[in-house]
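Hi W., the flavin mononucleotide complex you wanted:
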Amino acid sequence: MDQPAPVLDPRATDALIASRRTCLRMDADLAVDPTVIGELCRLATHAPNHHRTEPWRFAVFTGDGRRTLGDLLAGELVRVGEAPERVAKTRVKYLRAPAMVLVGSAAGPDEVTTEENRDAVAAAVQNLLLGATSRGLASFWSSVAAPRSPALLELCGFEPGTVVIAAVYLGHPTATCPPPGRSGPRVRWIG
Ligand SMILES: Cc1cc2nc3c(=O)[nH]c(=O)nc-3n(C[C@H](O)[C@H](O)[C@H](O)COP(=O)(O)O)c2cc1C
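Structure:
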């Protein structure tokens, strides 16, 4: 069977994908070039997207913005009676990276579209992470405590109904993180 001509050396692509790590070992005080963050958000938008709804939304927090983000989410935790230790941790956790990229998935007109939008945005986040990895940046995909909080959506500039699916820590690495390993794909071939 004829093999298609590769667009890139597949070994390089494979190595990039396999070397991406969820890693917080980054220099909190060394800024990430805003142009690069813009490039990563643009790369994210190349994800597959049913009906081309372009559901991805991005909000970048740097400097004191990270504290504003932490304060808001800590406030949401206080509101639901969370333990003081978790509240205190949330308040400062975003200071561990020089830049936080929050990624939202906009709601669609119906449940299926909303679900497919979220699938597309998850693929977009992976694009962003791979772009960061290829540029030598450390990245870490985390969840947020209150992903549908109206106050959070307002702070991010996301429309009501959006869900924040990722808070990505981005920074220059200070060390590497060991790979957690994979047990291999479960694949059934039906010929
Ligand atoms: C939707 C999603 C949410 C995640 N949220 C968190 C999180 O809140 N905290 C965390 O430590 N890791 C979080 N992770 C990262 C995973 O823990 C990580 O991908 C996993 O440990 C595998 O490590 P690797 O990405 O380096 O291969 C999240 C990953 C995804 C896809």
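The chain has six helices and four strands.

W.
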